[in-house]
Amino acid sequence: MANEISTIGIMPHAYKKSSLDVAGNLLEWLSGRGIDVHILREDAQAMGCPEKGSDNEEFASGLELVVSLGGDGAMLRASAAAYAADVPVVGINLGKKGFLTAMDADGMYPGLEEILAGRYMLQERMLLACSLGEEDSPQLHYALNEVAVGKRELQRMIRLEVDINGRYFHFYAGDGVIFSTPTGSTAYSLSAGGPIVDPLLDCIILTPICSHSLMDRSVIISPESYIEVQVQREKVMPTLSFDGREETELPRGGRVLIRRAERRLKMIKLQGYSFYSLLRAKFDFPDYGK
After folding, report:
1. How far apart are alpha carbons 144 and 89 in whole angstroms?
2. Does a structural domain hold residue 290?
């Protein structure tokens, strides 16, 4: 991406006043520097400037950067828009953990000055592509963090057959299975007992959720592999979720195909960024011997 950025999309957390207030201030700040700012229609309405709203196609037209305002949830939403437009995304943390974001609110303007001057790190992160439905017209979904196959009923188990590269691998009974990217290894997968993986690696992390089996460990799968999941006939309603944002019901006996996405997400970090330093800070690692 060229250093000269002339068109930026702003995506705030539309249900948090603090995020909307920051978005309004950022809109004024960017406009004052001659930058064309794009805002999705629903976000512009929430910000109180509906006349500045645009539909998805207008939002993506000429876009060079997407700025997320919020926590990791807002960042996942903005990442989906940036991926669709094939432009970089940067996050300003207004939430709690902010694992995916690049800077906190108090460093927003200095950080953006650095980005506008071309002083930043551009990382490429792997996504998952998930297809379901008929083979001749499959529904395709993308996930930066994870694809999770689960269930609605709390008191019942779901039974899933998992095949890898066309061969039977394992039969899972429990609350479901998470298929995570390295970026998502510190999210839902970690809560279910999965490993922490450097986000610049490429792999698929399979982590069972409350498995009723001795085989309850995560499995690290090659990014070249493809995974098929078949939901066995049950008295439960199976569900499929993508980054915790979208959820769809699965037909009993239906199949889901998961593989590495064909493109990567471009994510901006400020100079000096270290995943391991971030890990220490966010999880409050003790300083033994320091």
Report:
1. 12
2. no
What is the distance, to the nearest Å, from the Cα of residue 224 to the centroid of all Cα atoms in its chain?
20
Q: What is the dihedral of CA 17, 19, 25, 28, to 10 degrees?
A: -110
- Coil vs helix vs strand at 270: coil
Within-domain flag for 141: yes
119 and 137 part of one domain: no
- Give the mean pLDDT of the chain: 92
Q: Which residues carry out catalysis?
A: 72
Please indicate, yes or no, whether residues 149 and 106 belong to a single structural domain of this protein. no
Q: What is the pLDDT of residues 44-78, one digit of tens each?
A: 999 999 999 999 999 999 999 999 999 999 999 99
pLDDT for 160-190, tens place per residue?
999 999 999 999 999 999 999 999 999 999 9
The CATH code of the domain that includes 169 is 2.60.200.30
β pairing state of 158-164 and 167-174: antiparallel
User: Domain range for residue 184?
Assistant: 128-260
Query: DSSP letter at 182?
Result: S
